[in-house]
Design brief:
Layout lengths: L9 H28 L8 H40 L4
Helix pairs in contact: 1-2
């Protein structure tokens, strides 16, 4: 029971950030290509800048939440092992 359910909501938020990142990969790459790689460069618009910022923030949040979740699961594993190791009174 201790290791089977996750009730903190972080995993759902992490998957929402993954979805935002995946959904923005193509538009962000197109904006970066048109602004920095194409010969007649087109300037970034405000919306394009927001898309790029949202993409990088979502990627950073996925990394951060994955790190937090991994440390929490390690603590849960240690606690479950400790509880199983106790003798019945």
């Amino acid at each position: 029971m201790l290791l089977s359910t996750n009730k903190d909501g972080l995993s759902e938020f992490m998957w929402a950030c993954v979805g935002a990142g995946v959904g923005l990969i193509i538009p962000v790459l197109e904006k970066i290509k048109s602004a920095f790689i194409d010969d007649p460069a087109t300037p970034l618009t405000i919306i394009g800048t927001f898309e790029i910022c949202i993409f990088f923030v979502s990627v950073a949040l996925v990394v951060l939440i994955a790190k937090i979740s991994s440390t929490r699961s390690k603590k849960a594993d240690e606690l479950a092992t400790e509880i199983r190791g106790r003798g019945r009174v």
